[in-house]
């Protein structure tokens, strides 16, 4: 959403947890571990505000469903 008001502004398109083990396997060293996500912003007006520096951060609203994995 935009400013916790509008919904449907963007969606996550990439996600990776950079553990030390994964970084080693990829041949990189970021100097830290963490979660990296990439989002596609569908609203041109919001994207312009992001590019202009008007929006310097964002919060992620979401929900998940836990499912038992099969062996």
Description:
The protein is of the alpha+beta class and 71 residues long. It has 2 helices and 2 strands. It is flat, with a radius of gyration of 16 Å. The model has no long low-confidence stretch (mean pLDDT 87).
Give a summary of the structure in a few sentences.
Helix content is 23%, strand content 24%. It contains 2 helices and 2 strands; from the N terminus they run βαβα. The N and C termini lie far apart (37 Å).
Please outline the helices and strands.
Blueprint: E1 10-18, H1 20-26, E2 34-41, H2 44-52
Antiparallel strand pairs: 1-2
Please give a handful of descriptors for the protein shown.
alpha+beta; 2 helices; flat; 71 residues; two-stranded antiparallel sheet; single chain
Helices and strands, in N-to-C order?
A: EHEH
pLDDT below 50 for ≥5 consecutive residues: which ranges? none
Shape: flat
Largest sheet: 2 strands, antiparallel
Sequence of strands across the biggest β-sheet: 1-2
């Amino acid at each position: 959403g935009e400013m916790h008001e509008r919904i449907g502004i963007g969606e996550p398109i990439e996600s990776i947890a950079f553990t030390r083990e994964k970084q080693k396997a990829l041949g990189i060293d970021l100097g830290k571990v963490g979660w990296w996500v990439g989002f596609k912003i569908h609203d041109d007006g919001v994207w312009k505000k992001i590019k202009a520096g008007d929006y310097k951060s964002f919060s992620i609203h979401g929900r998940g469903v836990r499912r038992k994995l099969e062996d």
